[in-house]
């Protein structure tokens, strides 16, 4: 005991010498968390309640059926005031007991569950059933204290049981695995249910039931809920791959066959592992711990490659299944803390932190070299969750700084007048009209706990287990009466292995007597992320005494470039459709060295095309900077192939908006005196985009915004347009022109209608609001001291001035490449296709079609299109040099299927 006291005393001294955060600083950040919560919660109550969610850009509630469908994402909405129920126990944690009491009364008086609507069993369980049970546990705690809720008679529990009974029909399968969806009113069978035909579910969907259902059984004394949840968990365990002890991502609920055999710790599987360990913690059943430890050993053997966590195939666990990671795996370091395996938790968290600092938020998916794979960020709380658990485990103030980074980024980039808006694209800072209920249920809980002192809490959180939605279930439920009919440890003949219990409940304080130890683990990972975008040293062309012509620098109208091409044996052929074909004849080069340089140039063009398929003219940002928006609202805009390139502007273009007359912009502007010096708003249609740009430029406009005339169109569901020229030179157009779909354009028009004077900033990405307000020059990146624009985007490339993409069109005596801006699913030829210098190589350069072409940037695609294409491109970028087209297409199809399943899993 004296030794332990000495260690703890020494640890406190080491933390106090300039490394920690003072109590006053922590209190300031804790109060900031409360203020941010109030901003989000009050806007939901003022503008959205009783709807399920708040739409923070348009300041109204999201009611299912009244808004354009978002596919499976909407299955979380059941017309049961989702956000209010999900937030109940957060109110208590933040010491808002009066608001909690009022919220409970609203739930009891206003919310109905008898709705003819199909909902996700998984989402409804963790958000609504978990929210009701968490609210019930808080109500009991407050009632016992004698200050609040004295009138409470288990009303939330009665509502929870009603909901549990409505979810039970989903478990009526031969396997015991639940259907993924259920109709709250009609169950799963019959013509009225509109469900019951599904065959597949995700592992997490079936394996994230036990905490809520067991708690419901223990609270009510009805064993049926816990029994069904245990049966589903037992079936998943029995269906694990016996050699690898891993589970797949998607399973057939009738046959038990694995539909998707890739295995990881992210989307589709994540909370299955979480619930195995937490079921042991809550229920005290050793078998859950035994199963978790067996799975965990396999995860650390096959999936964990610190600091990375990479998916593998369950039958071939040494074979990687993908080259990217999704943001949901950010919960795993927190789970490792509960397990007691702190070292890999520190390493993975540090990797996630560095990716967060590179992109301001964790992208929905990112590659193993830390580039953006899917650019969205729906304000997920998993990284904050792991940050809190690591701080609890280590006491290292480094994690308080990580929490402050989360707070700063939320306030600077996600905060809008009506709440907090999800990020549509972390690279541009554009927003999505979305604030999920988990943002209030989880994010503010973990951030508040991170900065709060124990004496500032109304109750001891150590007496509760957090569900995957961060709802509080009391550990006392482990001793609550439950029916002996619940099978305990009857599904496996395996005996417990004591070795699997090591470090299950460690005293984590004693793991780190030296505070420098975690820092030593973090430093190499920080360097690894920083090195992920190396800048190659410029090389000089052998034999020519000057730098060679690089593909990204090539311009078809530059005489010097044409001379360099001629020396390398590359000639140009101007095609009738306005494109330029590049053809290399090695025999016509001035020397063997020059011919080899020509081959390298053509290979660079191929590599450039692969990069530019996702990078060509990425989505731009329109940031509303005037009152009351102050830069908080950012709209995703499509770029133009002509005019000012905003990616090369350090300040962007800032000005007040004015509606041009005529609105179409297809003839001379009649209100030029108002357009002059302003940014003109135009309607799409009736003429070419370049013609609109010329008319407003002649009227003196400094920029233009074209708004789609197709009512209801949105970048959420339609491809974002890249506006093309009109078939002739557009060098005379010098102002920037951006495109907005109808939904985003209406936000701008409504703001103009209400406030009369609306000032916007046109740029490549949202800019630092502090600099905007102070009138300082706008920085070229989102955060002061951050990496440059391209590194902030995580793309590790230089902006190219050459055309956009290649398409292999045949290989006989020559290899032909076409740069076609409308192509989306091409694969670049392999290195073997280029051949030695003896072969001729031909490439066609597209200088711009004469009609609108879809912009392949992800900011404007429908979620499925956008992300499936990114999956294809990421795989292609890595392997295009050595793999066949058939292999690439197979990988693309696998990634597409993976994303579509992840959509169903609520990614």
Automatic annotation (TrEMBL):
Its main location: endoplasmic reticulum. Residues 659-748 form the PA domain. The keyword Signal applies. Residues 792-889 are annotated as: Disordered. InterPro entries: 6hp_glycosidase-like_sf, EDEM1/2/3, EDEM3_PA, Glyco_hydro_47, PA_dom_sf, PA_domain, Seven-hairpin_glycosidases. Its EC number is 3.2.1.-. Keywords: Calcium, Endoplasmic reticulum, Glycoprotein, Glycosidase, Hydrolase, Metal-binding, Signal, Unfolded protein response. Residues 798-817 have a biased composition (Polar residues). Its cofactor is Ca(2+). Residues 860-880 have a biased composition (Basic and acidic residues). Ca(2+) binds at residue 468. One of its GO terms (cellular component) is membrane. It catalyses: N(4)-(alpha-D-Man-(1->2)-alpha-D-Man-(1->2)-alpha-D-Man-(1->3)-[alpha-D-Man-(1->2)-alpha-D-Man-(1->3)-[alpha-D-Man-(1->2)-alpha-D-Man-(1->6)]-alpha-D-Man-(1->6)]-beta-D-Man-(1->4)-beta-D-GlcNAc-(1->4)-beta-D-GlcNAc)-L-asparaginyl-[protein] (N-glucan mannose isomer 9A1,2,3B1,2,3) + 4 H2O = N(4)-(alpha-D-Man-(1->3)-[alpha-D-Man-(1->3)-[alpha-D-Man-(1->6)]-alpha-D-Man-(1->6)]-beta-D-Man-(1->4)-beta-D-GlcNAc-(1->4)-beta-D-GlcNAc)-L-asparaginyl-[protein] (N-glucan mannose isomer 5A1,2) + 4 beta-D-mannose; N(4)-(alpha-D-Man-(1->2)-alpha-D-Man-(1->2)-alpha-D-Man-(1->3)-[alpha-D-Man-(1->3)-[alpha-D-Man-(1->2)-alpha-D-Man-(1->6)]-alpha-D-Man-(1->6)]-beta-D-Man-(1->4)-beta-D-GlcNAc-(1->4)-beta-D-GlcNAc)-L-asparaginyl-[protein] (N-glucan mannose isomer 8A1,2,3B1,3) + 3 H2O = N(4)-(alpha-D-Man-(1->3)-[alpha-D-Man-(1->3)-[alpha-D-Man-(1->6)]-alpha-D-Man-(1->6)]-beta-D-Man-(1->4)-beta-D-GlcNAc-(1->4)-beta-D-GlcNAc)-L-asparaginyl-[protein] (N-glucan mannose isomer 5A1,2) + 3 beta-D-mannose. It is found in: Endoplasmic reticulum. GO terms for biological process: carbohydrate metabolic process; endoplasmic reticulum mannose trimming; response to unfolded protein. It comes from the Eukaryota. CDD domains: PA_EDEM3_like. Residues 1-18 form the signal peptide. Pathway: Protein modification; protein glycosylation. GO terms for molecular function: calcium ion binding; mannosyl-oligosaccharide 1,2-alpha-mannosidase activity. The active site is at 123 (proton donor), 270, 364 (proton donor), 382. PANTHER family: ALPHA-1,2-MANNOSIDASE (PTHR45679:SF4), ER DEGRADATION-ENHANCING ALPHA-MANNOSIDASE-LIKE PROTEIN 2 (PTHR45679). Belongs to the glycosyl hydrolase 47 family. This is alpha-1,2-Mannosidase. The lineage of its organism: Eukaryota, Metazoa, Chordata, Craniata, Vertebrata.
């Amino acid at each position: 005991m004296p030794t332990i006291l000495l260690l703890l005393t020494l640890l406190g001294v080491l933390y106090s010498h300039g490394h920690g955060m003072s109590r006053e600083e922590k209190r300031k950040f804790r109060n900031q968390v409360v203020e941010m919560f109030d901003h989000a919660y009050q806007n939901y109550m003022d503008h959205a309640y009783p709807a399920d969610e708040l739409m923070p850009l348009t300041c109204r509630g999201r009611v299912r059926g009244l808004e354009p469908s978002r596919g499976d994402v909407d299955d979380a909405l059941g017309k049961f005031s989702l956000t209010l129920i999900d937030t109940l126990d957060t109110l208590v944690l933040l010491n808002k007991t009066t608001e909690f009491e009022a919220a409970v009364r609203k739930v009891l008086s206003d919310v109905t569950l008898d709705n003819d609507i199909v909902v996700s069993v998984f989402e409804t369980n963790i958000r609504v059933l978990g929210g009701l049970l968490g609210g019930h546990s808080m109500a009991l705690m407050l009632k016992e204290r004698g200050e609040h809720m004295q009138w409470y008679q288990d009303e939330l529990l009665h509502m929870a049981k009603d909901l549990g009974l409505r979810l039970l029909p989903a478990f009526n399968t031969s396997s015991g695995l639940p259907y993924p969806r259920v109709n709250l009113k009609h169950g799963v069978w019959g013509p009225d249910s509109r469900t019951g035909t599904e065959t597949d579910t995700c592992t997490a969907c079936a394996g994230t039931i036990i905490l809520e259902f067991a708690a419901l059984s223990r609270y009510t004394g009805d064993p049926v809920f816990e029994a069904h949840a245990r049966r589903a968990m037992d079936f998943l365990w029995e269906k694990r791959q016996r050699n690898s002890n891993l589970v797949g991502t998607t399973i057939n609920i009738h046959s038990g066959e694995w539909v998707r055999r890739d295995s990881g710790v992210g989307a589709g599987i994540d909370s299955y592992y979480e619930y195995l360990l937490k079921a042991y913690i809550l229920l005290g059943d050793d078998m859950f711990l035994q199963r978790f430890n067996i799975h965990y050993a396999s995860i650390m053997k096959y999936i964990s490659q610190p600091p990375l966590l990479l998916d593998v195939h369950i039958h071939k666990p040494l074979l990687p299944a993908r080259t990217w990671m999704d943001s949901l795996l950010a919960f795993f370091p927190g789970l490792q803390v509960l397990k007691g395996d702190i070292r890999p938790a520190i390493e993975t968290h540090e990797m996630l932190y560095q990716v967060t600092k590179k992109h301001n938020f964790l992208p929905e998916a990112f590659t193993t070299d830390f580039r953006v794979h899917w650019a969205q960020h729906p304000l997920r709380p998993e990284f904050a969750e792991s940050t809190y658990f690591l701080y609890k485990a280590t006491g290292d103030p480094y994690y308080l700084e990580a929490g402050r980074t989360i707070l700063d980024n939320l306030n600077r980039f996600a905060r809008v007048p009506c709440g907090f808006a999800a990020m549509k694209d972390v690279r541009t800072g554009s927003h999505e009209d979305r604030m999920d209920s988990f943002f209030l249920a989880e994010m503010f809980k973990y951030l508040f706990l991170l900065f709060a002192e124990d004496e500032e809490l109304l109750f001891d959180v150590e007496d509760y287990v957090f569900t995957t939605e961060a709802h509080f279930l009391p550990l006392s439920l482990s001793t609550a009466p439950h029916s002996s009919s619940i099978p305990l440890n009857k599904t496996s003949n395996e005996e417990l292995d004591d070795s699997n219990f090591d470090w299950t409940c460690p005293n984590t304080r004693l793991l780190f007597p030296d505070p420098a130890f975690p820092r030593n683990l973090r430093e190499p990972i920080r360097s690894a992320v920083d090195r992920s975008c190396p800048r190659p040293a410029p090389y000089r062309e052998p034999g020519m005494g000057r730098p060679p012509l690089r593909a990204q620098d090539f311009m078809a109208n530059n005489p010097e470039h044409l001379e360099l091409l001629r020396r390398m044996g590359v000639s140009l052929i101007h095609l009738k459709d306005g494109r330029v074909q590049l053809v290399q004849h090695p025999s016509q080069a001035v020397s063997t060295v020059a011919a080899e340089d020509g081959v390298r140039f053509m290979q660079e063009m191929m590599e450039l095309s692969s990069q530019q398929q996702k990078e060509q003219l990425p989505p731009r940002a329109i940031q509303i900077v005037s009152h009351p928006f102050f830069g908080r609202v950012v709209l995703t805009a499509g770029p133009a192939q002509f005019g000012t390139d905003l990616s090369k502007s350090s300040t962007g273009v800032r000005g007040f908006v004015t509606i041009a007359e005529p609105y179409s912009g297809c003839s001379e502007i009649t209100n030029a005196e108002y357009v002059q010096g302003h940014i003109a708003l135009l309607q799409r249609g009736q003429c070419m985009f370049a013609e609109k740009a010329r008319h407003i430029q002649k009227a003196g406009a400094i920029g233009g915004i074209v708004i789609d005339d197709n009512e209801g169109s949105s970048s959420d569901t339609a491809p974002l347009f890249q506006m093309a020229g009109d078939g002739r030179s557009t060098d005379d157009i010098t102002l920037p022109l951006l495109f907005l779909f109808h939904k985003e354009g209406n936000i701008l028009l409504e703001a103009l209608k209400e406030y009369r004077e609306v000032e916007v900033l046109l740029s490549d990405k949202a800019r630092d609001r502090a600099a905007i307000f102070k009138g300082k020059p706008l920085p070229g990146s989102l955060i002061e001291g951050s990496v440059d624009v391209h590194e902030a985007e995580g793309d590790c490339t230089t902006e190219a001035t050459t055309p956009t993409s290649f398409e292999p069109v045949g290989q006989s005596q020559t290899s032909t490449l076409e740069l076609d801006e409308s192509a989306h699913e091409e694969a670049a030829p392999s290195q073997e296709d280029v051949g030695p210098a003896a072969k001729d190589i031909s490439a066609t350069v597209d200088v711009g079609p004469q009609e609108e072409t879809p912009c392949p940037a992800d900011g404007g695609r429908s979620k499925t299109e956008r992300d499936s294409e990114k999956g294809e491109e990421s795989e292609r970028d890595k392997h295009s040099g050595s793999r066949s087209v058939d292999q690439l297409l197979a990988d693309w199809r696998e990634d597409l299927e993976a994303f579509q399943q992840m959509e169903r899993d609520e990614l």
